[in-house]
Amino acid sequence: MNDILALLIPSFIETLYMIGVSAFFTILLGLPLGIILVITEKNHIMPLLKLNKFLSTIINIIRSLPAIILIILIGPFARFIVGTSIGTTAAIVPLVVAATPFFARIVETSLREIDSGIVEASISMGATPLQIIIKVLLPEAMSSIVLGITITLINILGYSAIAGIVGGGGLGDLAIRYGYHRFRTDVLIACVVLLIIIVQITQFLGNSLAKKLNKK
Description:
One of its GO terms (biological process) is D-methionine transmembrane transport. InterPro entries: AA_ABC_Transporter_Permease, MetI-like, MetI-like_sf. Belongs to the binding-protein-dependent transport system permease family. CysTW subfamily. Keywords: Cell membrane, Membrane, Transmembrane, Transmembrane helix, Transport. Pfam families: BPD_transp_1. This protein has about 220 residues and is an all-alpha fold. The protein has a single domain (about 1-215), classed as Orthogonal Bundle (MetI-like fold). Helices cover about 80% and strands about 0% of the residues. It has 9 helices and no strands. Helix 3 (about 65-75) crosses helix 5 and helix 6 packs antiparallel against helix 7 (about 130-165). The longest helix is centred in the N-terminal third of the chain and has 38 residues, at about 1-40.
């Protein structure tokens, strides 16, 4: 039991580190990207159709790649950013690249659900595009965006487990190195249980926060 804990605790911390840092940068990049996808559409507050089409195409290309292939392809870029393509910190780079387009689409969908009449009313009152984004779009969609963040966190967790195949660290790496290659079924089961617990807690907290923010 003690030897399992000695393996699980560092890997658990690595997984939380990967999820936390990856989620931070994913939200930092994906939120404005999702907003741009909406406001640059035809008949919206800042119509820029060429930019919209370009960003949409790039997002679709990245999202079409399987996670494991994307993680391998981003290896050289990760090496350029953090100095190595192996390890927990290096795994954050492909995790962010994989999760950002996904989250951007979620933000886009959340903003599309807002009644167009609210936006039109804001425009008629003389609100600037920035004011509409900050005071209308984001507050109205916040509950849905929080649910989107929750789904994204769970996706990042799944990506982090896959990253273990290429030495990304965390519970996925432990499950493969010890649970699979060394035939340690007990370690494999323990990793799976921990991953399930993380997902359940994340989903519960996300749902609870989204309910509090829901204005409907």
